[in-house]
Design goal:
about 80 residues; alpha+beta; 2 helices; elongated
Protein backbone atom coordinates (compact mmCIF):
# COMPACT_ATOMS: atom_id res chain seq x y z
CA UNK A 1 0.00 0.00 0.00
CA UNK A 2 1.30 3.43 -0.90
CA UNK A 3 0.24 6.94 0.10
CA UNK A 4 0.88 10.44 -1.18
CA UNK A 5 -0.17 13.92 -0.11
CA UNK A 6 -2.72 16.02 -1.99
CA UNK A 7 -1.71 19.67 -2.43
CA UNK A 8 -4.06 22.64 -2.15
CA UNK A 9 -4.23 22.66 -5.97
CA UNK A 10 -5.34 19.01 -6.08
CA UNK A 11 -1.98 17.65 -7.24
CA UNK A 12 -0.13 14.62 -5.93
CA UNK A 13 2.99 12.63 -6.72
CA UNK A 14 2.42 9.05 -7.80
CA UNK A 15 4.81 6.91 -5.75
CA UNK A 16 7.71 5.45 -7.77
CA UNK A 17 6.67 1.79 -7.24
CA UNK A 18 3.21 2.65 -8.62
CA UNK A 19 4.77 4.44 -11.61
CA UNK A 20 6.92 1.37 -12.24
CA UNK A 21 3.93 -0.99 -11.97
CA UNK A 22 2.02 1.15 -14.51
CA UNK A 23 5.07 1.50 -16.74
CA UNK A 24 4.72 5.29 -16.88
CA UNK A 25 7.32 8.02 -16.97
CA UNK A 26 7.31 11.79 -16.77
CA UNK A 27 4.96 13.23 -19.41
CA UNK A 28 2.94 10.02 -19.87
CA UNK A 29 -0.81 10.12 -19.48
CA UNK A 30 -2.80 8.18 -16.91
CA UNK A 31 -6.54 7.53 -16.73
CA UNK A 32 -8.72 7.43 -13.63
CA UNK A 33 -11.75 5.13 -13.68
CA UNK A 34 -14.30 5.57 -10.88
CA UNK A 35 -16.75 2.82 -9.95
CA UNK A 36 -18.61 1.98 -6.76
CA UNK A 37 -16.67 4.43 -4.61
CA UNK A 38 -13.26 3.24 -5.86
CA UNK A 39 -10.80 4.77 -8.28
CA UNK A 40 -8.51 2.73 -10.51
CA UNK A 41 -5.49 4.19 -12.29
CA UNK A 42 -4.47 2.98 -15.75
CA UNK A 43 -1.65 3.97 -18.05
CA UNK A 44 -2.94 5.47 -21.30
CA UNK A 45 -1.37 3.63 -24.20
CA UNK A 46 -1.27 5.11 -27.70
CA UNK A 47 -3.46 3.30 -30.22
CA UNK A 48 -0.42 2.58 -32.39
CA UNK A 49 0.67 0.06 -29.78
CA UNK A 50 -2.36 -2.05 -30.65
CA UNK A 51 -1.32 -2.65 -34.26
CA UNK A 52 -0.99 -6.34 -34.99
CA UNK A 53 -2.49 -7.52 -31.69
CA UNK A 54 -5.54 -9.03 -33.39
CA UNK A 55 -4.98 -11.83 -35.86
CA UNK A 56 -7.25 -12.58 -38.84
CA UNK A 57 -6.51 -15.68 -40.91
CA UNK A 58 -9.23 -15.17 -43.51
CA UNK A 59 -9.46 -12.96 -46.57
CA UNK A 60 -9.69 -9.17 -46.18
CA UNK A 61 -13.12 -7.84 -45.27
CA UNK A 62 -14.65 -5.07 -47.36
CA UNK A 63 -16.02 -1.85 -45.89
CA UNK A 64 -19.53 -2.87 -47.05
CA UNK A 65 -19.19 -6.18 -45.16
CA UNK A 66 -18.07 -4.36 -42.02
CA UNK A 67 -20.99 -1.93 -42.23
CA UNK A 68 -23.43 -4.80 -42.79
CA UNK A 69 -22.03 -6.63 -39.73
CA UNK A 70 -22.42 -3.48 -37.60
CA UNK A 71 -26.04 -3.03 -38.69
CA UNK A 72 -26.80 -6.74 -38.12
CA UNK A 73 -25.23 -6.61 -34.65
CA UNK A 74 -27.22 -3.48 -33.75
CA UNK A 75 -30.45 -5.14 -34.89
CA UNK A 76 -29.72 -8.24 -32.81
CA UNK A 77 -28.98 -6.16 -29.71
CA UNK A 78 -32.37 -4.41 -30.13
CA UNK A 79 -34.20 -7.71 -30.55
CA UNK A 80 -34.83 -7.21 -34.26
CA UNK A 81 -33.95 -9.80 -36.87
CA UNK A 82 -34.74 -7.85 -40.03
Amino acid sequence: MFESVLTAKGKTTIPKPVQDALGVNSGDRIRYVMSDGEVRIFAVRPNGGLFGTLKHDGPPVTLAEMERAIVDGAKRSCGRTQ
